[in-house]
Description:
9% strand; Heat Shock Protein 90
Amino acid sequence: MTSTGEEQGRAGSPWWWGRRRDAVWDVGIAAVSAVECAWEGVPFAREAGIPPVLGVLFGLVVGSVLVLRRRWPIAVVLVGIAVTPALMGFVLGVVGLYTLAACEVPRRITATLTSMSLAATFVVMYVRTRADVEASTTLVITLSVFMAVALTVPPVLLGLYIGARRRLMESLQERADSLERELSLLADRAEERAEWARTEERTRIAREMHDVVAHRVSLMVVHAAAVQAVAVKDPVKAAKNAALVGDMGRQALTELREMLGVLRAESPKAVVPVAPVAVVGSLEDGPSLDALEALVGQSRAAGMVVELDVRGAGVGAAYAAEVEQTAYRVVQEALTNCHKHAPGARVVVRLAHREGEVAMQVENGPCGVDVVQPGLPSGGNGLVGMRERVLGLGGVFVSGPTDGGGFKVSAVLPGAPRQA
């Protein structure tokens, strides 16, 4: 029973079998039932006083009704109850009750038809037994009850069990299909998250390499331009600038090696990242606010006039590693932009330690008069990278030109100083 009688009735198709073997099985059972009813139709015709041929034909028609058991189980049971007085339709009654109990017919209808079948069988058996056997009434009633229960209850109980088992299997199948769909959705989401994480990681790597390399390379270009300008007039100063270029280059190479070493070390483990990484490399080994003085000193060595102003009661306090690294990178990139776009300008770097936050600002004045532009390339990613870093930590980032013709970069990062 792969489908219910009512559901099949609503289908509207003249063929109600879902599988070929179901049709073969039902036709076979109907044939057996028809032969049985035809055999039992002969004595019925004699008792009714009609020709035996009519009894056989009647039995064939009644038994063939069983072929409709999947589509109209109620009708099959009613036919079986109707022919009970004729003592025919044993297969019809048993299989009909089984089908009725196994399908999705409302239980009140099943109970009603089962009671009718039980009562009809009891009455017929009582009348037949009382007329044929000379015995006490108690024995006749007991025998009739036994036969009625034996012919009615077992097929109904078996049908209820098979129907409940089928519904359980269908429920488990639905749950398995639902789980498979959920797993498919989770796999798609995991793939989307992995792709997003890979994209985010590429962006972070590009931003980190830009921040690490751009500043030192910019200083190298500035010093190289200074060497070219004073090489003939002041060989000592030219040699000093050339040494600074070498130092900057070595520092840039060292930082690149460290970064690439971290990427190579982590690549076998992170085959498919499922969550974004905060920064490339170890945060604890990255730059901190204590290195701002040295950073400003490098710009001063390149000829830039830079003033460092540190304020607040938390001077010298240590913040979370990501906060200190982000603050350092913001100042570093702002100084790099000053080298690129404002050569000869006076620059002020301000750092303020406040309650629960740290603020930084890099402001440069207009370019110096008769200053040769160093011709440094610009990809336009510096301000974007600074903004992404600051907003990623929940801070505030503002940049733009000043009224005096310069440019200003400001950022505020949340984070209370770490306790020693």
